[in-house]
DNA sequence: CTGAAAGCGCTTACAG
DNA sequence: CTGAAAGCGCTTACAG
């Protein structure tokens, strides 16, 4: 691999001039620039990022930090999408992406902290999980800028999150528009911020129609399919079951559908179902599940754009909210006997 | 952040001596070593990988190269698992992981090639896709070692792949052991190497029992759920339908299950079903799908271990094969009326 | 066992 | 507009 010195020799200029050309800096005559550019093109020279990083005091690498516990990591069906979005946008700005799936917080002081101290990252994107606080603490001690994907930035770092509130609002309006009045909700315990927002959006949608969420119709699972099935079973076995159920994620909605079918109910005629996330399973159910899609790719893109802006000297922005999309499929429809408001 | 010079000053030694301590080299007296180590511990000093990379001529970064086309990327349900395995093993050897989801081959000359030339990677792991060849070509021109996850290493690079053959053999033995004799297979066109191996394993299993795969019972989908449904419909509507179907991936198996249920068949009494991969959907079906699990995490681990071995000066190994596991669930059982061989 | 010196391949003031 | 020199923070021979 040629070095900048060889390029300089071939183009009969100094390394400093080659550097100016490489970095698109002024004060190079057009003819000189053309000559250098030609040599670069002929040799296929690409400057060493190792050397560049040392002298320019930047690494051209962004860290994607995903704290997780083994049972959690795969729970997020959008991680790959988020990664793709981040990488595409980072590449546009000349950055590479380093992956660090930091283990549980207790190990945070280990690999993760070491990575940050090793001076290898120009900035970082932290994916919010339940245990994000210790990692945020480590980042706060560093000079490099960082961005959170999720809610509750534990400090002054910008955050990017999906419009869970708006998605829930749209889903609720959709069901109300179909004529439903007895809406039940399958929530989750514990409930991360995103699910809080979804619940808030549902309440707001009901409020628009002059309704409130009957606390008896708010039940909780633990985000798993089985818990959704159990919660729905509870709701459906009551004297006055709901005509529609919104589950705060798709897996619980899939469980609810299973409970409904087991009781001989027809979806959506006897029971409408709406989920959140649009995981692969959603479109494979029969009937396919109406759900609120997570904008994974866009979340990643927006987070990377924000971080690159910070690195470029832009003032920190406030939290960005990425639109969600209501995907209407077969699991939601008008109730068999429309009720009166 | 302190530098090695400051540590040297604090420990009253030369930077060269600090370097020896940092790199666990001999020729440092125990007392000196202890003093330096104490200063390092007190200051929390971590050497700059930027500087270390430049002088030691290595970056401590491994590239994870995933060529993909937009519609392909998410098809592999094990990418996250593979990533986790690679990262865990790489970290054990002091390496970090850089993610490069290189776009379609036509863009390969762009970001991907630039990354390789920028001298940023000590080695690379290439995830096999249909279009892996152009990327392998780029890697071959580099001095850095690399490893393929998948089949058909296009050259002398070591490859690591799952034991698709063995998994298919186990699945076939399982069905034969239950008493099935009329086995059908839903394959795919085009058929990547992994699926070829699976088909080979099925034939081998049948051969053990003195059977051969009836070519009329070998049909093809395109790996999608819908194609599996159509293929199964074709098989089930015949005068003499099979008592068991092996689909070369879970999505097609899920489609086959849908086709069976639509025809009022009972799974597994009327039709046993086996898939491959153990995607999340597999355990969520009713009945849950018997399938051959992909050892994603282990694949990643093995690939990273091989690559780190190469970087440590070990001789190139031949291809490593990672065991697969047959997960028996509710979709497979004895046929209603056991046939005679 | 220890340290002074040179060098990794760039960029950054600075002088011309 | 151009280039000589110093420096980024380490490691690597080499001399002592």
- Give the strand tally of chain A: 12
The most extensive contact between chains is: A-B, 43 and 43 residues
Read across the widest sheet of chain A, the strand sequence of neighbours is: 2-1-3-4-5-11
Give the count of structural domains of chain A. Answer: 3
β-strand percent of chain A reads 15-25%
Describe this structure in words.
The structure is a homodimer. Helices cover about 40% and strands about 15% of the residues of chain A. In chain A, the strands form two sheets. Chain A has a six-stranded parallel β-sheet with strand order 2-1-3-4-5-11, with helices on both faces. In chain A, strands 7-6-8-9-10-12 form a six-stranded mixed β-sheet, with helices on both faces. With about 350 residues, the first copy, chain A, is an alpha/beta fold. The mean pLDDT of chain A is about 90. Chain A has three domains: about 5-45, Orthogonal Bundle (434 Repressor (Amino-terminal Domain)); about 60-160 and about 295-320, 3-Layer(aba) Sandwich (Rossmann fold); about 165-295, Rossmann fold. Chain A is elongated and about 90 Å long. The interface between A and B is large, with 43 and 43 residues. Strand 2 of chain A pairs antiparallel with strand 2 of chain B, so a sheet runs across the interface. Chain A binds a DNA duplex (16 and 16 nucleotides) through helix 2 and helix 4.
């Amino acid at each position: 691999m040629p070095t900048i010195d060889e390029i300089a020799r071939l183009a009969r200029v100094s390394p400093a001039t080659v550097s100016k050309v490489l970095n698109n800096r002024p004060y190079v005559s057009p003819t000189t620039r053309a000559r250098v550019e030609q040599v670069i093109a002929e040799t296929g020279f690409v400057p060493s990022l190792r050397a560049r990083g040392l002298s320019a005091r930047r690494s051209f690498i962004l860290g994607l930090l995903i704290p997780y516990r083994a049972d959690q990591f795969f729970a997020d069906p959008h991680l790959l999408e988020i990664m793709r979005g981040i990488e595409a946008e980072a590449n546009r700005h000349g950055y590479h992406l380093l992956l660090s799936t930091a283990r549980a917080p207790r190990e945070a002081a280990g690999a993760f902290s070491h990575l940050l101290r090793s001076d290898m990252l120009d900035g970082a994107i932290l994916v919010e999980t339940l245990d994000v606080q210790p990692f945020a603490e480590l980042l706060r001690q560093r000079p490099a800028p960082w961005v959170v994907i999720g809610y509750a930035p534990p400090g002054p770092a910008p955050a990017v999150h999906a419009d869970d509130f708006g998605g829930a609002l749209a889903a609720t309006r959709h069901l109300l528009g179909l004529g439903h009045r007895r809406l039940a909700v399958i929530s989750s315990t514990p409930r991360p911020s995103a699910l809080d927002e979804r619940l808030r959006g549902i309440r707001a949608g009901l409020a628009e129609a002059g309704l409130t969420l009957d606390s008896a119709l708010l039940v909780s699972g633990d985000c798993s399919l089985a818990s959704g099935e159990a919660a729905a079973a509870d709701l459906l076995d009551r004297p006055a079951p709901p005509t529609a159920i919104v589950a705060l994620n798709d897996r619980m909605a899939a469980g609810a559908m299973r409970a409904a079918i087991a009781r001989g109910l027809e979806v959506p005629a006897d029971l409408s179902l709406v989920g959140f996330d649009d995981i692969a399973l959603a479109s494979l159910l029969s009937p396919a599940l109406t759900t609120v899609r997570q904008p994974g790719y866009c979340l990643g893109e927006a987070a990377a754009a924000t971080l690159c802006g910070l690195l470029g000297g832009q003032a920190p922005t406030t939290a960005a909210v990425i639109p969600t999309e209501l995907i209407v499929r077969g699991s939601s429809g008008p109730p068999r006997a429309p009720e009166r408001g």
